[in-house]
Amino acid sequence: MKLSILDQSAAAHGRGQDETIRQTLALAQQAEAWGYHRFWVSEHHSHPSIVGTAPEVLMAAIAARTQRIRLGSAGVMLPHYAALKVAEQFRVLDALAPRRIDLGVGRAPGSDGRTAQLLNPDRNASERFPQQVMELQAWVNGQNLPPGHPGHKVYAYPQSDTAPDIWMLGSSDYGAQLAAHLGLPYAFAYFITDGQGADEALQIYRETFRPSAGLQKPNAALCVWALAADTDEEALRLFESRARWKMDRNLGRIGALLPPEDAARDYSPAEQFALERLREGALIGSAATLGRKLRQLAARLEVDELVLITWTHDPAAQSRSYELMAQEFALTPST
């Protein structure tokens, strides 16, 4: 099974946000050395917890520091932008790292409604998403748009004999249906829904998939939040930072990750019940424990690639988690 990483540049209490971005670069280099298949970065705006706002910039910096690992966006929130500009950015990235670039796109704003409107004042931008994706496909692959289209005989440069792979990202049936219709690979955001809707979306994707020039059969990946440590007990301790964040988020409080030792607070009885369920269902544990959970999940949903997202307050704990999973799944660097 392929293992990949999605790093969201999660803010940590007491650490500068600029340091968080640099930590993402360092993690990408480690991921390549451990043998991970892809390293993806995300796009969020005006988000106190996730400070990665410009995946295309991060990807360029990572491309300059790596040689083999695939790099991608998970994703570019396409309704914020002109498809031509996105195509140009990723054609430049492909020139810097040929055959290593994934262009993951999504329809969600990655922000609140007010921020989304500041990024693009067109309130109906998301309704054009399917058309944008098709335009993006043409420009990324060097194809001419049909006569009568405003983009006819307009091209995204630089051109070459390689092109980024476009991925559809989603957490609902909508993305699955569009990915299947356009013959694109599909990544389901399991970590957003805590698994709800995953079975249905993946089934729709596989059953309605239409082969395309770039992809002859369905290709689905699952993006999951996961944390490994040397023992089950240590993984549970580290998880307290994430658990506190999720419980606070339910109350509309969004901020940086707290250290595990500072994560406890007084919870209401209803919160205590929700917290216990959260701990019980979390993909955490020692390498053996988490490895078993991940294999069972991948087998149940019939995917052969998992993209792991790990938040910890301490970057060393995050690195150790990914290192343990690389060992558990016997990853080897590609040549």
UniProtKB/TrEMBL annotation:
It comes from the Bacteria. InterPro entries: Bact_Lucif_Oxidored (IPR050766), CmoO-like (IPR019949), Luciferase-like_dom (IPR011251), Luciferase-like_sf (IPR036661). It holds the Pfam family Bac_luciferase. GO terms for cellular component: cytosol. To bacterial alkanal monooxygenase alpha and beta chains. GO terms for molecular function: oxidoreductase activity, acting on paired donors, with incorporation or reduction of molecular oxygen. This is Luciferase-like monooxygenase. Gene3D superfamilies: Luciferase-like domain. Residues 1-298 form the Luciferase-like domain.
